[in-house]
Amino acid sequence: MRAALFIAAALWASCASARPVLMISIDGLRPADVIEAEQRGLRIPHLRRFVAEGAYASGVRGVLPTVTYPSHVTLVTGASPAKHGVVSNTTFDPMQINYGGWYWYATDIRVPTLWAAVTEAGKTAASLHWPVSVAASGVTWNIPQIWRSGHADDAKLVTALSTAGLVAELERATGEPYAAGIDESVESDERRGRFAAKLIALHKPDFMTAYLTSLDHEQHAHGPGSPEAHAALERIDAVIGGLVAAELAAHPDAAIAIVSDHGFEAIGRETNFFRAFMDAGLIRLDAKGAVTGWDAMPWPSGGSAAIVLARPDDKALAARVADLLAAMQADPANGIAAVADRAGIARMGGNPEASFFVNMVPDAAVAGAFGGATAPLHAVPKYMGTHGYFPEVGNLRATFMIMGQGLPKGRALGEIDMRAIAPTIAAMAGVRLTKAEVPPVAEIAATR
Description:
Layout: H1 2-15, E1 21-26, H2 31-35, H3 45-53, E2 55-56, E3 59-61, H4 68-77, H5 81-84, H6 114-120, E4 125-128, E5 141-143, H7 153-161, H8 166-174, H9 186-203, E6 207-212, H10 214-222, H11 227-250, E7 255-259, E8 265-266, E9 269-271, H12 273-279, E10 283-285, E11 291-294, E12 296-300, E13 304-309, H13 315-330, E14 336-340, H14 342-347, E15 356-360, E16 364-366, E17 378-379, E18 385-386, E19 400-404, E20 411-412, E21 415-417, H15 421-429, H16 442-445
């Protein structure tokens, strides 16, 4: 049945008349914050419009791990991290030399994207601040997300990596400088919203992605459902109103989608796996606390951690690490809910470089910073909320809503798979994603 739906939707997409599509991501948006906005005291009329006038999922089951960068690549490819290649936010850095570098570069994406599919069909595509979009193939007008230090030179880096002349053009048109890539404040989201609206007005792209980040920032800092998070979401709602108005002015027949990458858990404790691995002799340091060698290395993702072995085929090493993780899991103070092996990781579409994947209990997180020789095993986290847990965790469900001419109104879609979103958007745009792993959402893809 699933195969039949996929074939039918693919055939429809190949012959249907295309419509413009705008896809806006609100990092960390929990679906119930929109669906149950009134009960939660949230004043978000523009987002509520999608519930009344469009179709919406009760939840979106995400990918492993449920963090921003792997999820956003899934949102434009329809593939899992194991297939698309972006398996974490940060790149693997066992020697701690990459200054906290992230997967900024689209050259790491190993499957076709929506941007490329659209431009290969002779249309135009735009993107503003989307994760993993530096040098993205097929983006006609691109301002990627990237930062390094927060120094003023970061603005030069963004300008250099954007479509030639685009930042300057939009700065002239808006009368203000573009927001710094490292700045996750709601004020910067509002500025990016004005830039995105102006890009739409000036260039009228057939397909556009735009990304807003301040809700995630506030939920990390103050917890999901906090007054600070609600205040940010209400201001983001006004940004959404401006983007919807700009898109419909440029393309009255457009389909507009709101997506997110993950939900959130409130946390109160964290465990430093680097500390445990150092104590077990699996990570070795010099007198200054720098890594000199390693046999097994944690790769943290908030509520989970991939464990990478220096010699993945070394059965004795794998057994040694398995024993350490089992001993850690047996102590409730460490907050380990589950440990997946390679077969379990493959079933979840997670990092193929990992030999183990550790999932934490809901109130516990994995320390993200290495911390060096003096790092404690347990600590109170600097954040009050996080994500990154295994995708079956209910509070990690993400958001999908879509509205436009001819689309269902007030239609509840139930729970969907995140990998279904990109092929659904492709169907709206009249293109195909050949490497998408699941069918599009039939009720949307079949709508002409």
